[in-house]
Structures are given as C-alpha cells and as structure tokens.
Amino acid sequence: MRRIILCVSLLCVLNQLLQSAPPGCLDEKKLTEADRERAVQLMWQSLDRETLFTYAGGLKPVNIGYDAIRIPADGSGDLKDVEQIRRISSAFECPGLFQAEVHHMDFIYDGKRSIQTVLFHLPHFREKLKRHADLFSPYGITSSANPLEVMMAIEYARGGNASLMLGYLLGYPEDAVDFFHAASREQSRTGQFVKRNFLNPSSFDPRSFFVWAVPLGYKKTAADEAIFQCAETILAEYKLRRPQYFGDGKPGPFALLRDWLDAGFPSCSSTLQRGNQ
Q1: What is the pTM (predicted TM-score) of this model?
Q2: 8 Å CB contact between 26 and 254
Q3: Does residue 277 register a pLDDT over 90?
C-alpha cells in the first residue's frame, strides 16, 4: 500500500547542503561578452519560471526547455544558435550538482526539429533512477548513467513507458504521472481525449510549466500539497533574494545562485522519497 512520506516541519525542511560553490560552478565569467549577456537574460527568465525548482533544492529533478531552438530537419540550416546555447549551457552547470545538456527531439513538425535544453539536479535525478529502476533497466540505464543517455532513451521509447519515465523525472506526483500515462493509453485506444484539470505551483513569472494533469473533480492529495508547500518555501526565499541581484550594477542571477548555494538551498528531499513502504 502506498504511503506518502511528507516533508516534516511545515512539510518542507530547509536543509543546508554542506558545501560551498566549487570552482567552475555557475561561472558566467568564462563566457564571451555576447554569450554572457545572453546567458544572464536566459538565467533570469529560467529562475523566474520553473527552473528555479530544479536549482533551489531539486524539487524538480529535471527541467526541460530553459531554451529551445528549431532547425531545418534536412540539415540545411545554420547551427550557430545551437553552438551558442551549448557554450552558454556550460555556465548553467556546477560539478556534481547541476548538469546542463542540449539534445535533439525525434519529432519533426513543418520540416523542422526542436533542439531542447535540459537541466539536471544530479543527486535527485539519480535518486529517481534508483526508485524507478524497473522502468529504466530495460534500456541498460542505472543511476550512474549519463543524463543525456537517459533523455535519449525516453525520446526513442516511442510510447510505451516514456510518459512514466519522463513524468517521474520532472518531479510530478506519482499518482498524477500514472493518471497521465493511463489517459494517454486510453486516448490511443479509443481516439477520445480524456478530460482533465491541472495543478500548477506558483512561480515568480506565472508563465511556468511546472504543471501536472489530474482527473476532473480531483482533490489535492498529501503529495500534491507537499510539493506546493515546498515550492512556496523556495519561491518566498527567491523573492527575498532577487532584488539584491537584479538590475544594472547588481551581481546578477549566477551570483544569486552561487551565494544561495553557499548559504544553503531549501531542500524538500523527503517529498522526493515518497513511495511504497
């Protein structure tokens, strides 16, 4: 029987990571001026939305799409923008903690293919791989696998359990992931869309994609509430810190993250450990 393990002390405990930002961590200064300007713009946009919940404690172990590019699928396009986002993504990383990757999507629409960016909170990402090893092991994936290998396995799973694999990594409640997977299978079988509602924790910018589907008439579970509470704790701290770093002459988003890492990111790891016991 599934039992939900909640964060203790108001559902979300502020646990300090016992480390400071290591050399090369979230280092935008290594970029050229043009790349650095774009990186700062992109990081603010990302932190104001759902990427915040990956950086600040790993509530969202994987975040897709802090930037995206579409290229001609026939190979005729100029890939300079892809090269730039690869360079920029190196500044989004922190050894042993955050990894940023750029990967192509298999699906082609209107003759173009999407190139997506993905950010991994490595400790919680690897926890998810262990917890759901039954889904990933058929692809030879263990918790030590390269994150990009994991994303490619999901991309080419072509249905099957791909929505389960991805949903768990994105940090959605397990019941919500299971519902979405079942609804997708039902729609494939009958051709009828399964109606649903959505839950979406607040972010600084309301255009956040940290959102999951639930059945009509659904009431929040303890797992939903725990994620909302943890997200509120992270967002409240971000709102306090942001004005000190945003604006001309101020340190900027990379310094915000490095300083916050030194002080201790909020951690909702107990929420991420919920499951069968």
Answers
A1: 0.89
A2: yes
A3: no
